[in-house]
Amino acid sequence: MALSIRTAARPRRSPVSWFRSGGLSSVLFALPLVLVFLYFSWGPIVRGLVLSFQKNNLVTAPEWVGTANFSYVLTDPQLPQAAANTLYFALLALVFGFPVPLFLAVFISELRTTGWLYNVISYLPAVVPPVAAILLWKFFYDPSGTGVFNAILGWVGLGPYAWLNSPSLAMPAIVLEATWAGAGATSIIYLAALTGVRTELYEAAELDGAGIWRRVWHVTLPQIRGIILIMMLLQLIGTFQVFTEPFLFTGGGPDNATTTILLLIYRYAFINGDFGAATALSVLLAGVLCVLSVVYHFLTRRWSTT
Amino acid sequence: MTRTARCVAALTTTVALLVTAAACADGTTPAADGAGAVDENAPVTITIGDRPTPDKPNDIAAFDRNVKKFMDAHPNITVKSTETKWDAQTFQAQVAGGSLPTVMNISFTEPANMIPNKQLPDITDELKLVDLTKDLNPNVLKIVQDDAGRIYGVPIDVFSVGLAYNRALFKQAGLDPEKPPTTWDEVREYARQITEKTGKAGYAQLTKDNTGGWMLTTMTYSMGGTVQSEDGKKSTFNDAPTKKALQLLKDMRWSDNTMGSNFLYNQEEIRQDFAAGKIGMVLQAPDAYDMAVKNFGMKPADYGHAALPQDGGPHGTLTGGSIKMINPKASKNEIVAALKWIKSQEFDKYTDEQLAVQNAKDTIADKGFVGRPGITPLSQETYDRYNKWREPYNNVPVQQFAGYLESTKSLKLLPEPSNKAQEVYAMLDPVVQKVLTDKNADVDKLLTDAASKIDARLGR
């Protein structure tokens, strides 16, 4: 059999020859990196797991409490609302935020000469530090009639809207800012994918008389399907962990309308000093995201390009 | 400590936890002479907390200078220092872990729990020995006393909540800036007039990052209520005074429409809008002046500070501040040395004219403020004399704080909730937000729900 011949043809290396050919030095070379990776990348994850089963304030000796932290966070009356808010944010971001960068990328790639300019313009928001951007948008969202958005809408006779001060408008307002902030970076990834689309497909489509919309629909999108599916998963995982925007815009308000799971975790840890509850909820969230990823993988396997 | 400072401290301390734990490992150890007589000349080593962090080189230089000066004056005392700071989240653990320095600042919220738990040493006799007792303000001293009047700490810094108001807006609205409102009915009336005449928010409320609960507590106090039972085991806000406070906010928001349009304010944000002239009145401690003027460019002439408005009172005002605590494991000699240090750092300026003046000059050189009224940790007499010495250097318009100043002598100082105050505040934030953003908010139901949530937390 071919396999056995190959095995026989390749003699087993003895430890001595392994050592002589520099095996030890390559292990020594890799070891620090592996240790650093294990300690700093996986250490916190393991430590978090351990913490979630402890009553621990990080100073006195920890106390094992079994699953008490889990039952506490699962019965917290604030959890259902935080979970619903998080799902609502993810849904809004998916419906309104997800197509924007895709559209931007296709648009830019269709421009032959000034593409770079639009590229720069669309990516620029990603360069603004999130905290500065949120402060700026807070200014736009000023609820008084003289606020930037309200003034503009006032010209056409709308508003003024309460934006962040309204329990129903606060979340969409946050999603709008998050979309603005994230679109540039995501569209760059799509643009990179678009350069991989074979141009002869377009030429063939053009010969067949396909207009721009048909080309996008029948050539571009199917060709970057794989990337779209990956980006959607990344966005789902990202939106489930939204923190900065609600924390800085509204602090979770008004009346907990923008309290997300991550904000709840933050409150457990840094306001209540309850690190056990905070890590327990984090572990639960991580578990949900893992399950989500696996389910997503099986659901989309059929459509994936590979 | 103000809310802002506390939040910042909470964050920094959490980050610096490991560093701190290492730094204060060489704290006070129990000494053999614990019960013996005091020997003021025996060699003794004390550790001082609250050393400035490396990002403030000027403060470190001044701190080190003070330490050296003190050690030169007291050759038998060796002073070491650490950056250990009070932080509500980790403090109890530090006490339990025995990793505290000999002396450090803690909040007014702590002694209520610590004295009965024997986590603070009785320093009554030593205070007399270093001649500090006679100066301390008896009103403030209650915070660190037990029922028998024994003393367990030294209050050094006190604030109480009052009403900051914009004098320019008052004038525009045809109100007399020398006559700020003293009752909540007047606040409502004034707010209506300000909004009507100027179009600005007559009154605004803190609502975010735990300040909503903090100020609801303050309003509750001013209406004769409490938020927590004396033992801290149960919430008590589900009764008339808190309901009245929320109903007032609801009326001002929805019936009068005098609270502007922003109902998500934390300390910085509200001070910024106040300084910009968008708000007529807001509940604040007088240190709001510093940020409004220094950071947000408010004209000093426009700033006014009145007493906390009362309802059917006077009931009192919410007060907070800092105490110098001494490690419960410190020996008698160490306690005396620590008190000498506290006296030289915090109190000598009140009795030494030259020091008081120098202090004022230094403050001005550092672009700080001299003369902003506060509550004295000392006897009123001593404090008045100290202020007189510094009067020529005053760069704060003290007469614009007249209403507040008067209240510091007449209003009862009510401490913050003793058990999990920050958590209680956090749970009350959404209650205040709901009342201000939902016209149909049911005050009774909101409070009942919040009470059941908080009681569950207080028991955990």
UniProtKB/TrEMBL annotation, chain A:
It holds the Pfam family BPD_transp_1. Residues 83-296 form the ABC transmembrane type-1 domain. It is a multi-pass membrane protein. Keywords: Cell membrane, Membrane, Sugar transport, Transmembrane, Transmembrane helix, Transport. The keyword Cell membrane applies. One of its GO terms (biological process) is transmembrane transport. The keyword tRNA-binding does not apply. The chain crosses the membrane at residues 21-42, 87-108, 120-141, 224-243, 275-299. It is found in: Cell membrane. Belongs to the binding-protein-dependent transport system permease family. This is Multiple sugar transport system permease protein.
Automatic annotation (TrEMBL), chain B:
The keyword Signal applies. It comes from the Bacteria. It holds the Pfam family SBP_bac_1. PROSITE patterns: PROKAR_LIPOPROTEIN. Residues 1-25 form the signal peptide. Keywords: Signal. The keyword Signal applies. This is ABC-type glycerol-3-phosphate transport system substrate-binding protein. The lineage of its organism: Bacteria, Bacillati, Actinomycetota, Actinomycetes, Propionibacteriales.
